[in-house]
TrEMBL record:
Source organism per UniProt: Cyprinus carpio (Common carp)
UniProt entry keywords in alphabetical sequence: Cytoplasm, Guanine-nucleotide releasing factor
Keyword Electron transport: no
Compartments reported by the entry: Cytoplasm
Protein name as catalogued: Rho guanine nucleotide exchange factor 3
Annotated region described as Disordered, given as residue ranges: 1-31
Domain DH: 46-228
Amino acid sequence: TEARPLPPMPIRTRQKASSFPRRRSSQLWSDTVDSMSHELSTKEIKRQEIIYELTQGEKQLIEDLSLVKKVYYEPMLKLDIMTESELGQIFGTLDSLIPLHEDLLARLEGLRGAEKTVQEVGPTMMDWFPCLEAYITYCCNQVGAKALLDQKKQDRRVEHFLRLCQESSFSRKLDLWNFLDLPRSRLVKYPLLLKEIQKSTPPEHPDEDALPEAIELIQKIITEVNLKTGEAECQFYRRGLCYSEDSQRVSEIQASRFLYCHGELKSTKGQKLHVFLFELVLVLTRPLAQDREGPAQFQVYRQPLPAAHLHLEDLPDGEPSSSGSFRGAFTGNDKVKNCFRVSTTGRTKSQSHSLQANDSFNKQQWISCLRQAMVQSRDRQAQTSHCKPSERLSPDPGHRCYPFQQFSHKHRISLLLSS
């Protein structure tokens, strides 16, 4: 249906928006202390600064999540820019996270003594961390949420509203997805902060035993969130695959539990392909024209390549293909860059694909992930071939590597979740 005329946007004139500062305060713990009755060591001062950073981080997260509800969700619902169902899919269980962090903030602030110092923080974090299992639901929903948000941005009214918000002072130049991704970013910061506190904690300190236990616990929770999110991502994109032949529905696609990576690569003819490296199989696809009201669809191109039978060749830059198939296909000259070749032999008909990445960094990440998938799939195959059916084990989820977690935002957009 045709979009309705844009209503007047209230964002630019909202008086309450000023309560959300554009720039964060850089106040230190030492700035909050007028005087100390006793001398603190340099190490103890650093410890207090990190605990204060932990506390302030909670306060800022609560402010940001409250802002998202106040200036994004509520106006879009009231102005009928999106339906309540669509907003529910995009924002997920965000509302339920705010009380969790308000609870931790209250606990941390309650630890501060008369001189504004904190003695033990480990037991408090140990007691609070189990509630972060709520992040599993939120992070699993983010895969579909991001896809729907990108889809809705094609609507002129949605794009206009989000642009006005991002240009306003309260946003600090962050877009809606940056705000929705803040909980996940906060989650992975907890072990880093606790390790810094641990470094500044002297022997025999009451926190000496509790901090390592808290770090171990939060790392287990993060691993579980990553595992479940990976499974949700795999299921989401698997549902978007369209098959032209039944033979393309190989068992490895359904058996895969996660994606190593996915993104755009070019074929030897310069065709844009969207390539998925699932746990057990490499799938080349062509993106289909997206229905504004439906999820992204991908037409499977040729036959999927099982990782256990995959062969990988790194093609040197500036070296034209001996067959001439690369000649001028990508850039109009006979030299190419950032290419690699994947091929397979075995139970299916032999096939080979030469692919070009966007740049050398992307190429190396693809090669790294492909090699890992090949090794783990062959190890799994060797394991099952030497075991009785009742003894066969699935690959250990703990062995999964998340190769793109440390990517810059630019590369995470192109290779992981398109985000």
